[in-house]
Design goal:
Number of strands: 2
Shape: globular
Number of domains: 1
Strand order of the largest sheet: 1-2
Oligomer: single chain
Radius of gyration: 14 Å
Order of helices and strands: HEHEH
Structural class: mainly alpha
Length: 87
């Protein structure tokens, strides 16, 4: 929590994906909730190049962290099946 306050972080984007059964994940969620900051999940693979859906999800997380709606993405740049909220 001190780190977020000290560096003025407004959101956490977790690149490991949702891990509700792990203590570090629950701690991140609690800290974000206490600070009123969004905690966003955008899973990437540590051993493989990201797929297009992974990158779309990551970009949506960046947009949401900045306070923009995911639905503002240009429709012609995101395939319909990837427009859904992926976090």
């Amino acid at each position: 929590m001190r780190l977020m306050k000290r560096h003025g972080l407004a959101a956490i984007i977790n690149l490991r994906g949702e891990n509700g059964d792990l203590s570090w994940y629950r701690y991140e969620k609690r800290v974000c909730a206490a600070l009123g900051a969004p905690h966003l999940d955008a899973m990437l693979d540590s051993r493989k190049l990201p797929t297009r859906p992974m990158l779309v999800c990551l970009m949506q997380a960046f947009d949401e962290a900045r306070g923009r709606s995911c639905s503002n993405a240009p429709a012609d740049r995101i395939a319909p099946r990837w427009r859904r909220r992926c976090i």
